[in-house]
Amino acid sequence: MAAVAERVVAGAAETFARRHRLRWFEALPWLTAVAAYFAFPDYLALGSQVLATILFALSVDLVLGYAGIVTLGQAAFFGTGAYAAGLLAAHGLGAPVLGLVIAAAAAALVGLISGAIVLRTTGLTQLMMTLMVAVMLYEAANKANTVTGGADGLQGMNVSPVLGLFHFDLYGKTAYWYCLAALFVCWLVMRRIVHSPFGRSLTGIRENEARMHAIGSPVFKRRLVAYTISAAMAGVSGALVAQTTQFVATDSLGFERSGNVLIMLLLGGIGQLYGAFIGVPLYMIAQDRFAAIDPVYWYFWIGLLLVLMVMFARGGVLGIIDRIGALIRRRR
Fold it and tell me: Please, what CATH class does the domain formed by 29-331 belong to?
């Protein structure tokens, strides 16, 4: 019986590993990013912001799409990372990679402390608690103007060359590759997490928390770990924006940033790992085009786009792709 059990476990592990090997279509976002560098050399600064925001959206997708934690305060961790990296650069420690590590650690600490309180609540209370964490940090940054610059923003940052070799230029070439490399590393970590037994347990908690309690799963602990990892990823995203723009404003902790990233995920598709790669560029490019066409009422067109997506594509763009694929398979 022991030998049979071992073979069953080994077979299940092999099937699980085979199912989640890298597939050819997973290279498409990265090939697109490399192609965009050469196809749109005048938009590399915007491109670096898009890449950093994709990472921010991935951090939200981990807690919302997989752990089922609805949050309106993810900007708290984004802003923490931005200020951590910004303050380091403003005080002579401008090494970019060091800034990312410190930003991730600072945001993770805020996520761990706030999560230990927030995750003990549920429903609307939890939603408001996540928002209040961001509001409290926003007001703290606004009041501590001698440290953060307050409403004028943190200035005087001096970011060193990446690895001591690649200087940040006005055209955004270094910033683009730097953000792309950071996004790729974080995506690999995120992919490993969601396809691991830990990630599967998060999905189980999202689908039926009571059942996960019944089988003895440490629900609170696993949600807290996911919340902390998500906070660290959001902190890295904030640090990337701070380092590539060399400026940090209090709006990095604002509600609008948290709300916008939720809209981006809705457009791309929540809980599918790749929704951020579609929703963020779609939203930011649409925002840029609508603002150029209609500078006064461009938000109306963004709202109309979101309404149409909710009405006709509830799973976002990836939901449309999934339905088309299912339709093709049925006809075959």
Answer: mainly alpha
